[in-house]
């Protein structure tokens, strides 16, 4: 038996582990189902900044994974709750897509244009254009509180790597010298501590599984959990040569835990 199977809880990344966009990663899905069969507690934590929890829930169900909304923590939802806790009904300008906007509105925040914003919320947008970038730039220059949903530079889609939220964070940094005041998604502790709380377990009983060293493995190390890198997503074996943080285990896929 793989030593990680002694642990009680698993914090599992979605993109690059169980799916790529709308396509399931069969080995990843098989692994999740076997973990559930073995009685493990699972919470999915996704840095995806374009999808609401509702969309992620539908996606996991379409992959054949039995989940409910409480089993999913998304960067979009966590970002909205974080801001709502800081300032109720805050006025927010976001670069994000409908999935992020949905969570911001659900949390009681008001979406406004950049001139009226108290917060700049940066999340990925697949229709990013010069106009939206101009607004984000102006909002950033105003000096309002700047929150990023996640720090991912690259996002794994079904036909290859695509720009992550880092596209906008990087551009704003180059133009203004500003980095986000707070980053919510992995490897930030904000989202990881919420995941531990959801599992009701201490970090010593938990494995953090993901496909990116600087996102998932660093997040796992940050809370003191065991870490597993799977090679079904962004990082490949070669990535380990350049890495400054190392996962406790590296496997081809989540299902390899059972081989
Ligand atoms: Mg991933």
Which key phrases capture this entry?
single chain; alpha/beta; Rossmann fold; 6-stranded parallel β-sheet; 5-stranded parallel β-sheet; 9 helices; binds magnesium ion
Strand order of the largest sheet: 5-4-1-13-14-15
Low-confidence stretches: none
Number of spatially distinct domains:
2
Report helical residue fraction: 25-40%
SS elements, strand count: 15
User: How do the SSEs run, as a string of H and E?
Assistant: EEEHEHEHEHEEHEEEHEHEHEHE
Q: How would a textbook summarize the main sheet?
A: 6 strands, parallel
SS summary, helix count:
9
Brief sketch in words of this structure:
The protein is an alpha/beta fold.
What would your notes on this structure say?
By secondary structure, the chain is of the alpha/beta class. Helix content is 36%, strand content 21%. The chain contains 9 helices and 15 strands. The chain has helices at residues 26-37, 53-62, 75-86, 98-106, 130-141, 166-176, 189-199, 213-223, 239-242; strands spanning 9-12, 19-20, 23-24, 41-46, 72-74, 91-94, 110-111, 119-122, 145-148, 154-157, 160-163, 182-183, 206-210, 226-230, 249-251. A 6-stranded parallel β-sheet has the order 5-4-1-13-14-15, with helices on both faces. It has a 5-stranded parallel β-sheet with strand order 7-6-8-9-12, sandwiched between helices. It has a two-stranded antiparallel ribbon with strand order 2-3. Strand 2 (19-20) and strand 3 form a beta hairpin. Helix 3 packs parallel to helix 4 (98-106) and helix 5 packs across helix 6 (166-176). It starts with 8 loop residues before the first strand and ends in an 8-residue tail after the last strand. 49% of the residues are buried. Magnesium ion is lined by residues 13, 15-17, 210-212, 233.
